[in-house]
# Entry
Amino acid sequence: MSRIIYADNNATTAVAPEVLEAMLPFFRERYGNPSSMHSFGGDVKRNIENAREQVAALLGAEPSEIVFTGCGTESDNAALRGALSAHPEKKCLVVSQVEHPAILNTCQALEPKGVEIRKINVNSEGGLNLDELRSSLDDGVALASIMWANNETGVIFPIQQIAEIVKSKGFSFIRTLCRPRAKCRST
# Structure
C-alpha cells in the first residue's frame, strides 16, 4: 500500500480537527442563509456576528472592521480594491514583483482602469530591493502590499525594515501573523 506525502502545505493545508468540529453543524444542520429574514437564517447570522466579535477581540479591533471572505484571493482583492475606493484621489499600488498571483492578477486587471502599479524588484537571491521600496512610496500610493515570505521560493523579506520604511513615509503598517493551528494576531 502506498502512502501519500503532501508537501505543499504552503498552498493549502488540512483543516485543524477543532475547526472541523466547530464547523460541522453549519455544514449539516445550521446551513440557513444568514441574510434571510426567517429564524433559521437569523440563528446563523447571530453565530457569524459572535465569530466576528471573537476575531475582533483577538486582534484588538472593532467588530465592524472584521470582514469574512471565502478565501485568500478574495481577501487580497478586497484589500487592493478597498484601499483604492477609500482613497479615490490615490491611483497607485506598490507591490513586489514576486507577490502571490492573487495580488499580481488583480493589479493587472486594475492597470487598464488607470491604476499605476509599481513593482519592487528582487535580487538574484529573491531579496527585496528596500531602496526601491523607499523611493516608490509617495502621496499617490493607496496601498503597498509586500508579502512577508514568498510562497514559491521561501525567501523571507525583512519585515522589520519594511515596517520602518513604510512608517517613515507616513503610511500605516499592519502585520498579521498566522501559523497553522495557531492563533492569528496583528501588530
Remarks:
- Residues 39-59 form the longest helix (21 residues).
- The chain has two domains: 17-65, 72-177.
- The two ends are 47 Å apart (CA to CA).
